[in-house]
Write a structure and sequence with these properties.
The complex is a heterodimer.
Chain A (H helix, E strand, L loop, with lengths): L7 E2 L6 H9 L5 E6 L2 H15 L6 E2 L4 H6 L2 H15 L3 E6 L1 H6 L3 H12 L7 E5 L8 H16 L9 E4 L5 H13 L4 E3 L25 H5 L6 E5 L9 H9 L3 E4 L5 H15 L5 H21 L3 E5 L2 H13 L3 E7 L6 H8 L9 E4 L3 H11 L3 E4 L4 H7 L3 E3 L17 H23 L8
Parallel strand pairs in A: 2-3, 2-4, 4-5, 6-7, 6-8, 8-9, 10-11, 10-13, 11-12, 13-14
Helix pairs in contact in A: 1-2, 1-7, 7-10, 12-17, 13-14
Chain B lengths: L9 H9 L4 H8 L2 E3 L25 H10 L5 E6 L2 H6 L23 E2 L4 H6 L2 H15 L3 E6 L1 H6 L3 H12 L3 E5 L9 H15 L13 E7 L5 H12 L2 E7 L4 H6 L5 E4 L2 H15 L3 E3 L5 H15 L2 H29 L3 E5 L4 H11 L3 E6 L5 H5 L11 H4 L19 H9 L19 E3 L4 H11 L3 E4 L1 H9 L4 E3 L11 H16 L28
Helix pairs in contact in B: 1-19, 3-9, 6-8, 9-12, 10-21, 13-14, 13-21, 14-21
Chain lengths: ~450, ~550
């Protein structure tokens, strides 16, 4: 079935402000604030919560008819004042929506006006503004825009410190915890941004919290300009849109761009870089993790070799997963993304120069109808991506391995590892088990050893 | 009921809730936080704007129109005109179920259609793209109907979705295309969207098909969206009782049923807030009376069935209804007898919806539990105080912006199903025709009623009341559970259900038992277990 191209059917992307809200949740004592209708805050909250199973408060300037006509300045100022009074936040992360962007509210000007009016009365939180109109890009663009805006607002000039900025991309809370562990083990001070490992995956509250504990403190982000290096996990983000790009340009902090470290080769690059930066070998623990992973590859290779996969999700995740799948001999017959940076194919060719000869198809800016059409022709052994592929998986009887965001039809998406040797190990085990389960279910014999 | 239940001093609770707010906000919130007295029914400020920066659980007009009312329809292609987020977030999130008659029958519920507006559409207008999207949907599915939903930027850039719909309807010929101006900034909550949806369905669908249908007792079920299969259970009961369902609005409905719905002889309303406009408009235009019912709770289901039988006034029907109740009730009773000793005396709080916070209290009563505080997210004063306050509700600027259809009796199709005298007689028998008494008359004295409860206030209430269960939605769920109190989702049912009718009641009892008596809560130390809280607010709960 050839399907129409003007409209989107079953989108493979979420909207820009969602990513910004998540990123702001990774700053300590910060309340995300959407400048627009309250519905955006409500929808985005319910969506993030369905994945993380954690509360997330997002304030809003609650636009109404006349704010839509005359501008949202008044509502934004009232909103900021009320959030400040109730939550006493250190930071308010303000992201715009399609509504405030369409009417052209000048948010920086409104914030200056607000600061001038209330400076002497109300305690003044730090206000970060990210421009995130939902008619541009997708959730991942909002995520990066918020991270960059945070650094632009907070980073200060100063003497170089023994410090590395780590911009991890939109990874899981479990991945963030793993990164922190790695830096601790290397004894390398690190400014991780964002860090929602606790705010989006925390424990019960022994006491009341207006804002959940955790996140990177504003004071730590202020040091970002003094760091010796920035590491960012991305394959497609332009320097002009990246926090590391800004720090390099404004403060001369060298920017090290790595793909999301999934698979041995890409993880090696990350650990090699840490060795270079610290001038010391990686701790034995990670050698062990790597050795176990290589051993597992050897043990499990027969199950996964040449299995055909359709891969979808954010572009950076797709690039990293493609590298990993090729490493274990699997065949990503389609690498698809709802994102549209224009770089997906080029980045994949850099990883796999004979991509086309190998029969790997690359498509960006697609929706699930496009992917389903492809699936009917490509007949993959399984799908790898987020929960939104489930309908297609069920309809076409193709197993789905859930990774990334959103995962709302399986438990524990926030605790899934994806990156480094540990994350790769978990992914590899899950992939092998998906194959085994499929074979076991399909067998008429009822094998008990596989 | 009131005498045996001891509540914390409600006026102190009220003070606690508002003291953190700036003076102006505190003054406004105080009007929405009310100590109940079922005898005199105090006024509750409702359906007023949420103050910016006070984190609300409310949604937007689009959510009410597309998400709630039109979302559950099966064979209308619902296209969202706007950037991608709005369509994505309403993509099957409400768990509306539907049952096409065959695999060949259309079912568009699993789809998420969007014009996915880009910057150039914002700058140069999106009508052309919208028309293309309609054409593509038509070419692909040949649906009977296509509905267009406007999101925030659409109204601002001046796209005329109605003109585009008319043009495409004419062009396509055999497809009913219509639009909704349900931009997110209209009105104060999703409630505005319900009204807009009612108007659109009434204008563009109801009355298009005059085929008389079979059946002696024909009715429509309004305001039932078939979350978790609720409508299926009600359909089962109707069928058993010999009632013919012409159309539901809108769970498990079809275009054909909705277009033919004016051939029914009674409208029963489940969710008053979201659909009462439809009841009134159909009354005026076609002469079909409406009656408030509730199929949430076994006793309420029985009561509603009896009311319907009384309305039709047929002895055979009355006998059949009694037979159905007699057959269903023992199964329910057996489960209640088993569970009640474990739930009796426990307390609940409900802050949800525009009707659910009222109706689910019946299920808790059946479980021997007391509702200590309740409120709606997006209801109006009549849902709290009863429809008799309607003439006194001040129409503010936000409500004025929502079109009020001028409806008159249809010259050909108006046919009053009951004469004035018959209606009077029914009223004397206790049937409330075209009326709804609201939530507060049913709640105990000194229970607390809070409209549009904020995130901050919900935490405060839990701290003060320490309820055994809190009922709301996914946004509240995990913060409440962090304090060691189980939260029952009454939008998605925590992925369970159905909860309506007799079988649904049993499902609910079991689910609540599993939640309130679960050993995991013993592992979570609630914040109030740590330090001595204000003794003045401490209280014990005793139920009769």
């Amino acid at each position: 079935m050839k399907h129409a191209k003007t409209a989107t059917q079953n989108a493979c992307k979420l909207c820009n402000p969602l990513g910004a809200c998540l990123a702001f949740r990774g700053i300590e004592n910060c309340v995300p604030f959407l400048h627009g209708s309250q519905g955006c805050a409500t929808y985005i909250r319910r969506y993030l919560i369905s994945h993380y199973k954690e509360p997330i408060d997002i304030a809003s300037s609650n636009f109404h008819e006349e704010s839509a006509v005359f501008g949202g300045s008044h509502n934004l100022q009232v909103g900021l004042k009320n959030v400040t009074a109730q939550y006493k936040p250190e930071v308010i992360g303000i992201a715009t929506t399609c509504l405030s962007e369409t009417i052209g509210d000048d948010v920086p000007m409104i914030l200056r006006e607000y600061t001038k009016t209330y400076r002497n009365g109300t305690p003044m939180p730090i206000m970060i503004h990210a421009s995130t109109p939902s008619y541009q890009g997708s959730h991942i663009d909002g995520f990066h825009a918020a991270v960059r805006a945070t650094v632009v607002t907070l980073a200060e000039k100063g003497e170089r410190q023994n410090l590395v900025n780590m911009f991890p991309n939109m990874v899981s809370p479990a991945d963030l915890r793993y990164l922190k562990e790695i830096f601790t083990d290397f004894r390398l001070p690190c400014m991780l941004l964002p860090d929602y490992s606790q705010t989006m995956d925390g424990g019960p509250w022994g006491e009341y919290h207006r804002i959940p504990p955790g996140g990177t403190p504003a004071s730590a982000i202020a040091n970002a300009g003094k760091a010796t290096a920035s590491i960012e996990f991305t394959s497609t983000l332009a320097a002009s849109k990246s926090a590391a790009g800004y720090l390099e340009e404004a403060f001369g902090v060298p920017r090290h761009q790595l793909s999301l470290p999934i698979g041995i080769k890409e993880s090696d690059k990350f650990f090699d870089l840490l060795e270079t930066l610290t001038e010391q070998p990686r701790p034995e623990k990670y050698e062990d993790e790597r050795r176990r992973l290589v051993d597992a590859y050897a043990d499990g290779h027969k199950y996964v070799f040449e299995k055909k996969v359709i891969l979808y999700g954010e572009e950076d995740l797709v690039v990293a997963m493609t590298a990993f799948l090729r490493e274990i001999g699997m065949m990503p017959v389609l690498c698809a993304s709802g994102g549209k940076s224009g770089q997906l194919k080029q980045r994949l060719i850099e990883l796999i120069p004979d991509l086309e000869e190998q029969g790997i198809k690359v498509r960006e800016g697609v929706d699930f109808m496009d992917i389903e059409d492809e699936a009917k022709i490509l007949k993959p052994d399984f799908l790898i991506g987020n929960s939104k592929g489930y309908t297609m998986s069920r309809k076409n009887n193709i197993p789905l391995l859930r990774i990334g965001f959103p995962i709302h039809d399986r438990f524990g998406g926030q605790r899934a590892h994806h990156i480094g040797y540990r994350g790769t190990q978990e992914l590899f085990d899950r992939i092998v088990n998906t194959v085994i389960e499929q074979r076991q279910n399909a067998s008429s014999i009822g094998y008990t050893y596989m | 009921m009131e005498a045996n239940t001891h509540f914390p001093d409600p006026s102190q609770v009220r003070e606690e809730l508002i003291q953190r707010y700036p003076t102006k906000v505190a003054k406004k919130r105080a009007k929405s936080i009310i100590v109940n007295d079922p005898q005199i029914i105090p006024e509750v400020q409702a359906n007023v704007r949420t103050v910016p920066g006070i984190i609300t659980q409310r949604g937007c007009s689009y959510a009410g129109c597309k998400g709630v009312v039109l979302g559950p329809t099966r064979d209308i292609v619902n296209i969202v005109h706007g950037p991608i987020g709005c369509s994505f977030y309403a993509w099957m999130t409400r768990r509306n179920q539907t049952r096409p008659e065959s695999l060949e029958d259309a079912n568009f519920i699993p789809y998420c259609f969007s014009t996915d507006m880009q910057e150039e559409n914002i700058v140069f207008g999106g009508e052309k793209k919208l028309k293309q999207a309609i054409q593509e949907a038509y070419d692909l599915f040949h649906p009977k109907s296509i509905a267009i939903f406007s999101t925030c930027p659409v109204g601002l850039i001046g796209d005329d979705v109605h003109a585009a719909s008319r043009e495409m309807k004419e062009k396509l010929g055999d497809c009913n295309v219509f639009g909704f101006s349900c931009e997110g900034y209209r009105g104060v909550s999703q409630s505005a969207g319900h009204h807009i949806a009612n108007n659109g369905v009434f204008k563009h669908m109801v009355g298009r098909d005059n085929t008389p249908s079979e059946g002696k007792f024909k009715l429509n079920l309004l305001g039932e969206y078939n979350i978790g299969g609720d409508a299926f259970e009600i359909e089962r009961i109707f069928e058993k009782a010999g009632l013919t369902l012409i159309s539901s609005f809108s769970g498990n409905s079809t275009v054909k049923q909705l277009e033919n719905s004016h051939m029914a002889d009674l409208n029963v309303i489940q969710c008053h807030r979201s659909i009462n406009y439809m009841g009134d408009m159909m009354e005026t235009k076609y002469g079909i009376p409406w009656m408030k019912v509730s199929f949430v709770g076994a006793e309420s289901s029985a009561k509603s069935l009896r009311k319907i039988a009384e309305y039709f006034g047929d002895e055979e029907l009355k006998a059949k209804v009694e037979a159905v109740i007699a057959e269903e009730m023992p199964k329910v009773k057996a489960i209640i007898d088993e569970i009640l000793p474990r739930t009796k005396g426990k307390t609940a709080m409900l802050f949800v919806g525009g009707s659910r916070a009222h109706h689910y209290q019946d299920l808790f009563t059946e479980l021997g539990m007391t509702t200590v505080a309740a409120g709606y997210e997006f209801a109006h004063r009549d849902d709290y105080e009863g429809r008799e306050v309607l003439p006194n509700i001040k129409i503010d600027a936000d409500s004025k912006n929502i079109e009020e259809l001028k409806v008159v009796a249809d010259p050909e199709l108006y046919n009053p199903r009951k004469t004035e005298a018959e209606l009077e007689a029914l009223k004397e028998k206790g049937l409330e025709i075209n009326g709804y008494e609201g939530m507060m008359k049913q709640m105990t004295k000194k229970s607390l009623v809070v409209d549009d409860l904020s995130h901050y206030e919900s935490e405060k209430l839990i701290e003060i009341y320490k309820p055994d269960i809190f009922c709301a939605g996914i946004k509240e769920k995990y913060v409440v559970q962090k304090m060691g109190v189980p939260l029952k989702q009454l939008h998605s049912y925590d992925y369970g259900g159905p909860y309506t009718g007799f079988e649904g009641a049993v499902n609910f009892y079991k689910d609540i038992d599993r939640m309130v008596n679960n050993p995991v809560w013993k592992l979570i130390k609630a914040p109030w277990e740590k330090a001595g809280n204000g003794a003045a607010l401490e209280a014990t709960y005793v139920t009769q």
